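Morning!

This is the sequence you dropped in the shared folder:
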Amino acid sequence: MNLSIGTIFFSTSTKRYLFLLRNKDSHGDTWAFVGGKVERGESPIEGLAREIEEEVGFLPSITKNIPIEKFTNKNKQFEYHTFISVVGEEFIPKLNKEHKGYAWVSIEGWPKPLHPGVFSTFKIEEIMSKIKTVSELFVDSA
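The structure's back. Tokens below.
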């Protein structure tokens, strides 16, 4: 099975989310989460930490990683875990070659076009409800 992970960063100080603009490779010029494939021997959280460092350039101070979705394709050969990574402050990512831009935005004002996987996730009402609930909980406690 191929296992991949992704996260959407949420800043409690600004109530905004981080999206990265993909380069011209697979699904180029679409806005996506930080993430990628989990390597052999890694847990999803270990793979997430590695992918964050690779794509953001460092590991920001994360208050909490909250799982919000686990997608498995029909033939059960691919699994994708989506998280919200809560941070206190927005940060400037040091992008690698996979991305060419970034934006911190409100959840209702996400950039377009979205990566097809992100678009599919955002079409699920239950997932959007989880994102908004987590956001409210962490803003209220910040």
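Headline: Helices lie at 44-56, 116-122, 125-141.

More detail when I'm at my desk.
O.
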